[in-house]
Write a structure and sequence with these properties.
Number of helices: 7
Largest sheet: 5 strands, parallel
Strand content: 5-15%
Number of strands: 10
Helix content: 25-40%
Order of helices and strands: EEEHHHEHEHHEHEEEE
Structural class: alpha/beta
Oligomer: single chain
Radius of gyration: 16 Å
Distance between the termini: 12 Å
Length: 215
């Protein structure tokens, strides 16, 4: 499949890097301290900012700050365990700066740490959960990502693995939403691929191998 576009906007966790188990472990500790019934492994929690998840369970403003700082600390401690997912290293290192960026729900420190731990470049136009007032599933991260690159959202392609992210991309009005991994089969992504293996982009033409497509 070939698709003509100007910019690529990548979610990070579950698309570029595998931080799933590290996140589960961190949130499991957090839950024992603040919300015993919270289960981060539920896919309904995927793709959203930590602060938004904390706010769902912590009503007190004073306790919120403590709880939010705690999950940020726990996730940062596991950032070094992050590894790149299939095709991510090859694709990102082949891309020309100014034509792609990462729009992650992680805070700035965690987002950068996970990219670096996985051997991936950190784009100067990086969008993190700290940069937007409203995180996914709201469109703000992808609207800002497109703006940072100087492109209209309709001229961008988004890579996502979670429904919250797919909803954000659709609401932002991007040209194409590509789901990544089998988890993305349960999202509203336009097409779904196993991973980023074999995908190329020359600044105009995005090529996606048919053998890598799941839907």
């Amino acid at each position: 499949m070939k698709y003509f576009t100007s910019g690529l906007l990548f979610d990070n966790d579950g698309v570029l890097v595998d931080s799933h188990q590290a996140a589960i472990d961190a949130w499991a500790i957090w839950a024992t301290e603040f919300a015993p019934h919270f289960d981060f492994s539920d896919l309904g929690h995927a793709g959203q900012r930590a602060e938004d998840k904390v706010r769902e369970f912590i009503a007190s403003a004073d306790l919120f700050e403590v709880a939010n700082d705690r999950i940020n600390e726990l996730e940062q401690l596991t950032a070094h365990t992050t590894v790149a997912l299939g095709g991510a290293v090859e694709l990102l290192h082949s891309l020309e700066l100014g034509h792609w960026t990462v729009c992650t729900s992680a805070n700035a420190n965690l987002g950068r740490a996970r990219l670096l731990a996985a051997g991936l470049p950190v784009p100067p136009q990086l969008v993190t959960g700290d940069d937007v007032k409203l995180g996914k599933p709201f469109p703000d991260p992808y609207l800002l990502g497109a703006a940072n690159l100087g492109f209209d959202p309709a001229d961008c392609v988004v890579f996502e693995d979670a429904q919250a992210g797919a909803m954000a991309a659709i609401e932002a009005g991007v040209g194409l939403v590509i789901g990544v991994s089998k988890r993305a089969l349960n999202t509203d992504a336009d097409i779904v691929v196993e991973d980023l293996t074999g995908i190329t982009f020359d600044g105009e033409t995005l090529f996606i191998p048919d053998k890598n497509r799941l839907r």
